[in-house]
Amino acid sequence: MVYKILAVVFTIAIAIGMMVQHAMTNDQIRSIADVKAGDTKGGIVTLHGTVTMASGNRFLISDTTGKVELSTCPLWYKRIDLHEGDDITVSGQVMNSPSCLAKCDFMLSVFKIYRGGEIIEVRRRPGKPPWIGYRSFNDDSAR
């Protein structure tokens, strides 16, 4: 009986998580051109695109309207396992600094990455990233 209750609770929790993800992403996904053209500096946005460059924790994504550099975290803090060709949705904060990589429309400081049914949490919220207070002698210069 306890196992049945746990199974029902677990199933309900998964269903709620999927509904929240759907509500958070599908209804608010913007194109890269829309974000670039709008007054979104410092704002939170959700984009959908394809990974066109992956090197360590440095990524570029593109949609039919442009390219964006994703600012994630240092490799020593967390390894983000994305590959060229991955179809992803990302939520993050539009950064005021220009992209470091050539011909990108802007840089996005990423909080969450959605790939299929998987959610990759880079950090929990806007503001100072948790890895800022840490020092590493082996920092790979990845954000």
List the helices and strands and how they pair.
Layout lengths: L1 H24 L3 E2 L1 H6 L6 E12 L2 E6 L2 E6 L15 E8 L11 E10 L2 E4 L22
Parallel strand pairs: 1-2, 4-6
Antiparallel strand pairs: 2-3, 2-5, 3-4, 5-6, 6-7
Quote the distance from N terminus to C terminus. Answer: 48 Å
| Structural class estimated from helices and strands | alpha+beta
Q: pLDDT average, as an integer?
A: 81
Work out the number of β strands.
7
Description:
This protein is of the alpha+beta class. It has 2 helices and 7 strands. The chain has a 5-stranded mixed barrel. The protein is globular, with a radius of gyration of 17 Å. The termini are far apart. The C terminus is likely disordered.
What descriptors fit this protein?
143 residues; alpha+beta; five-stranded mixed barrel; 7 strands; disordered C terminus
What is this entry, summarized?
Helices cover 21% and strands 34% of the residues.
